[in-house]
Amino acid sequence: MPSKERVSIAQLKVGILGIVALSCIVLLIFLLTGGGGWFKKEFPLHVFTSDAAGLTPGASVRINGIAAGKVTKVELSGETNPQRIIRVDFDVDEEMHKQIPADSIASISSDNLLGSTKFLGISKGVSASLIEPNATMKAADTRQFDALIQ
Asked: Cα Rg for the chain, rounded, in angstroms?
């Protein structure tokens, strides 16, 4: 019969191995799902629009075609102004936030002609001042584009 000390050491080794294996599984799942960096700083921004046009949370945010963040929430705003019916909340990565002037314009765009994959596109402005975190961006009117597609 093994001594009590040897059993305790064996149990400790099994416990450490279990923790390491569980950590590896969590890391693998995180990497496979494409999660962003845990320590990446993001800036929240908002835009109001008249139509969500199929935009969903998790859609990408692009500045002049370059990936810059993710849409976090798309919801009814509760406002009566026809141009501010939908509120879109999104986060922009810190390094890309430095590239968004205050006069930039956001619009909902499509990756393909069928319009099945939507993203929030930001057209970079020319102002010298940068947009502040938690600010509301101006939105482009996309109703003419939607009418053309229909």
From this structure: 23
